[in-house]
Design brief:
heterodimer, A: mainly alpha, two-stranded antiparallel sheet, 13 helices, 2 strands, 70% helix, globular, disordered C terminus, B: disordered C terminus
Chain lengths: 300, 364
């Protein structure tokens, strides 16, 4: 068993990863609560954004920050376009159908990325990673600080936004009942479009941060969404605060398994295992009944 | 909405038709299938080079996998996003048993099917409590977990120990094939026979008591409950059947490739499989054949024409969205009109009696 000293660097890694998972988890939960769409293409969108930034910086020799801006804009545009064009067509369908359709978007993006950039693994170093400081004996990069900080700010900011603003109230209304909210005069399409836009921006930011923290590879970035999904699922796709802590948990458990050699190679299983246990625990008392079939039938 | 409902009705009658249709139409259909099967078994291999025989073998194997997923989705309304991981599991078990025992290949194949069935049913266990979206996500997570484990353990290649994997090239062996089917052509025929058996198994289930129970569950769980159907049992049954078929396909895949690699089972393949099964059509068993062709023949063709295979991934993505958006209500109840059209087109292609002329096909 490694000593406490060996774990220290991985606590930092875990918290940074957890921050990004919280960021993307919040993006997914807000979108799901507002539109009923669980965006499984979230990771693919972020991956494509990160690759675009990489391409602009390395091949077109653009300066860094405008490239990151273009990347985030791209993610926002793609997500918004999907939400505006495909979203309404599926609005009245089952949550499962909506989620499955986003897999279509994920495939389109995966195919495009693999076509343009091939499957080669790359690395992207954000300017924030060039500066580091020491906490005790552990070097902490500014990217790690930004990742964790953004996670905190976005999650608690969004929670406050949903609670105190008019748009937030409309979003919560939509989450409860789309029809009734529409009857009350809330412009449903416009509120949904804003949720898609915000979710797209979060996808872009998460993609950029992960490309630095984990590595720039289309497929792995696409499927890293599962880790944030795990956090969102532990929160039953409802509470942002629970999502935040679950995301930190997922990040910490996967990172801190690294120095333990016997389970190190299996550490990537952590999100799956945690989420599966959580789901089974949550659904332990559900029975098939005339009012529904347990989880997953409705949105609230 | 009327056209959509009409299409829905026609789907319903289509689904019910086989149960009460035992007249000459049925016999002609059987004859056509028999002729088609005879062609595939006797004539087709002699027309194909070793490379295309290999492709055809993969098509047959993935048809079995697609059949399992199509049964789950089309008949019961359960979505699994991890079938390729189950296939990888089947291939691992198959390869391990083939190295560990000297049992005949068909026996090992059946054993692999049964072991995968038990493992797959364990995955299906949560299906009894959670439903819909959550179940699909659990299967996605478990698929991810299986992929992580297999990335570490790797596939058996004749090494020692439980994992049976050796890094040394001297200790590695090819996975054996059945003694009656060591050549490419013979093995293709062998796989097609297994695929045909799986279709018979599927048909037997669909037309029997489980099929009726599944149809009721798919329509409405409360109705099924009221009708006294054991919902948990039949959902579990569906998962077990799909896993059994996927396990069989895994063993056949092990024999087909000789050496298994993790690269054969990328995580995105589970999603691509879902895409092609949706595009092929989940209510007709023929959909599985179409899915098999889409996922294995098209990439080979594109490769042959010098086009990037990534185009297909994009195409499948568009296909999923198109399939889902053109259907007005529910993956479970109503299957997209376009896929029904494709189904009808294929129906005519195989010479079903009572086939409508192209002019009226879309207006029923």
């Amino acid at each position: 068993m490694p000593s406490w000293h060996d774990f220290q660097p991985f606590i930092v890694t875990g918290l940074a990863l957890g921050g990004v998972y919280a960021l993307s988890g919040a993006g997914m939960v807000v979108l799901y609560r507002t539109t009923g769409v669980l965006n499984l293409a979230f990771g693919a969108v972020g991956a494509m954004g990160a690759l675009i930034a990489w391409d602009l910086i390395n091949n077109s020799l653009w300066p860094e920050w405008p490239s990151y801006g273009v990347a985030v804009l791209f993610c926002a545009a793609v997500t918004l376009a999907y939400g505006v064009v495909i979203g309404p067509a599926l609005a009245r369908r089952d949550a499962l159908v909506k989620a499955t359709a986003t897999l279509g978007l994920a495939l389109i993006l995966l195919g495009t990325m693999s076509w343009i950039w091939s499957d080669k693994a790359r690395s992207q170093v954000l300017p924030t990673s060039t500066h580091a400081f020491d906490v005790g004996q552990v070097a902490v990069t500014w990217t790690q600080v930004v990742a964790f900080g953004l996670g905190v700010v976005v999650v608690f900011g969004t929670a406050a936004f949903l609670k105190y603003t008019k748009l937030g109230t409309a979003m919560r209304g939509l989450a409860n009942d789309r029809e009734i909210t529409a009857t009350l005069g809330v412009p449903v399409r416009s509120v949904e479009a804003q949720a898609w836009l915000v979710s797209g921006i979060l996808a872009g930011v998460s993609g950029l941060l992960l490309s630095d923290l984990v590595g720039l590879d289309a497929v792995s970035l696409t499927f890293l969404v599962i880790s944030s999904l795990a956090a969102a699922l532990i929160a039953q796709l409802r509470s942002l605060v629970v999502t935040f802590f679950a995301a930190l948990g997922v990040g910490l458990v996967s990172a801190m398994a690294t120095p333990i050699t016997s389970i190190s190679e299996y550490r990537n299983m952590a999100p799956f295992v945690l989420a599966t246990i959580a789901l089974l625990w949550i659904s332990r008392k559900r029975e098939i009944s005339f009012t529904g079939t347990g989880l997953g039938n409705g949105r609230s | 909405m009327d056209a959509a409902e009409a299409s829905h009705d026609s789907l319903m009658t289509r689904a019910m038709r086989p149960a009460r249709n035992s007249d000459t139409g049925e016999r002609i259909r059987l004859a056509v299938i028999a002729v088609l099967l005879a062609f595939v078994l006797l004539v087709l291999p002699s027309m194909l080079s070793a490379y295309w025989t290999d492709v055809a073998t993969s098509v047959a194997i993935y048809t079995i996998v697609a059949l399992g997923l199509a049964l789950l989705m089309g008949r019961v309304g359960l979505v699994s996003l991890g079938q390729v991981a189950v296939l990888a599991l089947g291939a691992w078990v198959g390869a391990r048993l083939l190295f560990a025992t000297g049992l005949p290949f068909p026996v090992v194949t059946i054993m692999t099917g049964l072991i995968t069935m038990v493992l797959g049913s364990l995955i299906g266990l949560p299906a009894l409590r959670v439903s819909g979206l959550y179940l699909a996500l659990i299967t996605l997570m478990l698929a991810g977990a299986i992929t992580v484990v297999l990335a570490t353990t790797d596939f058996p290649n004749g090494g020692a120990g439980f994992l049976g994997h050796t890094e040394a090239t001297t200790g590695a062996h090819e996975i054996r094939r059945p003694s009656i089917a060591t050549g490419e052509h013979a093995y293709f025929r062998y796989v097609v026979i297994w695929a045909a058996l799986m279709f018979i198994l599927a048909l037997w289930h669909v037309r029997g008591k489980p099929g009726r129970a599944w149809a009721t569950i798919r329509q409405s769980e409360p109705a099924a409950l009221a009708a006294g159907i054991n919902i948990s049992l039949y959902k579990m049954w569906a998962f077990a059947l799909a896993s059994f078929m996927t396990g069989i396909a895994g063993a056949l895949l092990a024999g087909s490739s000789g050496t298994l690699y993790n690269l054969t089972f990328p995580t995105q393949d589970s999603i691509i499989l879902l895409a092609v099964v949706l595009m092929g059509g989940i209510y007709s068993l023929w959909g599985a054949v179409v899915a098999g062709l889409l996922i294995k023949l098209l990439p080979a063709l594109l490769d042959n024409w010098g086009l990037p295979p990534d185009l297909l991934t994009i195409l499948f993505g568009i296909g999923v969205i198109q399939v889902l958006t053109t259907a007005p209500a529910g993956l479970v109840d109503q299957f997209p009109k376009d896929m029904a059209k494709l189904g009808r087109f294929l129906w005519r292609l195989v010479g079903s009696p009572g086939a409508r002329t192209p002019g009226t096909a879309g207006s029923e």
